[in-house]
Amino acid sequence: MDDLDRRLLALLREDARAPASNLATKLKVSRGTVQNRIERMLKRGAIQGFTVRARPELEAERVRAIMSLAIEGERTAAVLKALRGFPEVAAVHSTNGRWDLIAELDAASLADFSRLLDEVRTLEGIGASETSLLLRTHPI
What we know:
39% of the residues lie in helices and 21% in strands. By secondary structure, it is an alpha+beta fold.
């Protein structure tokens, strides 16, 4: 992946529906170059898909959080497998420091969120956890 690919990805993150001609103009390359680069990144898996970002106030009832997890012994693979089974787990990240994994949680309601916490905390291999609610997302 070169600088042009990285700049193209940045533009697609802002607006994945932007026409190739607009992207080409911003990048100062041809429309064909943009289309070829996108197709190549899709085939290589650098682009895994396209999504929609809704305004947060449209989903005000949803409960989003970050859950930090400490894993006991060599149980990381088993914990990851179990976390993949929860539709409310949007992503899981390995990290360094006190916590081994960080899970992004997105539940439909406070009751669903509470149930999810109870289930995740009792997974075999979870030594400790700490959860922080995401109160508001600030544009950057």
